[in-house]
Inverse folding.
């Protein structure tokens, strides 16, 4: 395409896209992140009425899980679905703090690691050699396989019995977007979403942003680490 051509009325017109591409040929993650950073903070500000903040240290995740179970769920029964289980630290913690006998905990993972690279982590990072974790709690079950393969089969039979809590710890844009869009019909107002890597502007955040725009979902942040990396929100 030439840089300049004529429109339907014969007037000269600059092909802005062609000119821009001639000047700037390489995709810039930096520019992408800079723009998404604005979206991220605007979005957080618009959806944060009453947020409990937690320190940034690693173990804050367990404090956040405890806070949600004690204050929001109040130890009532839940249907907890975790996408990205690895060695099951989080899902086991959830099963230990939510003692309601009607709660159910579903852990989804290939147990063979990430299906694609994530930043400087190559495909296969978090490989548990295909072994499902051992667990001594019959409320916990594993759905082994690629989400894209096992979730449609799971959802064909699944009827939520309690408040749905989704924990997204997939790290990846593709996996996050797939899970959120697939789960959308199950996500009634009051459902809780937890993200482990929300601060990654090109991955979990970007997928959540695209999901909420595409499905017109509204939400409120309920608690978060100060750095907004691990966050929990309630859907409306
Ligand atoms: C960061 S780890 C999960 C850590 C875990 N939640 C914990 O508390 O320790 C990410 C996991 O997501 C899984 N994963 C990512 N995308 C997936 C997909 N599309 N299908 C199945 N598993 C996936 C990987 O196998 C990996 O075990």
């Amino acid at each position: 395409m030439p840089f300049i051509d004529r429109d339907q009325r014969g007037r000269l017109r600059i092909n802005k896209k062609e000119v821009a591409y001639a000047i700037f040929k390489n995709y810039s993650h930096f520019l992408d992140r800079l723009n998404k950073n604005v979206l991220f903070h605007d979005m957080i500000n618009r959806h944060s009425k009453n947020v409990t903040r937690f320190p940034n240290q690693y173990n804050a995740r367990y404090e956040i899980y405890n806070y949600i179970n004690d204050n929001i769920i109040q130890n009532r029964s839940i249907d907890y679905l975790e996408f990205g289980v690895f060695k099951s630290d989080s899902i086991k913690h959830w099963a230990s703090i939510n003692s309601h006998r009607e709660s159910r905990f579903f852990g989804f993972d290939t147990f063979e690691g990430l299906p694609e690279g994530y930043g400087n982590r190559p495909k296969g990072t978090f490989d548990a050699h295909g072994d499902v974790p051992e667990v001594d709690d019959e409320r916990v079950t594993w759905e082994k396989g690629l989400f894209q393969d096992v979730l449609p089969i799971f959802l064909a039979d699944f009827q939520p019995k309690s408040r749905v809590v989704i924990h997204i710890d997939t790290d990846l844009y593709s996996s996050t977007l797939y899970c959120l869009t697939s789960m959308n019909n199950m996500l009634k107002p009051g459902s809780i979403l937890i993200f482990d890597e929300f601060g990654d502007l090109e991955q979990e955040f970007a997928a959540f942003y695209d999901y909420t725009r595409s499905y017109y979902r509204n939400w409120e942040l309920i608690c978060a680490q100060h750095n907004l990396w691990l966050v929990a929100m309630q859907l409306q």
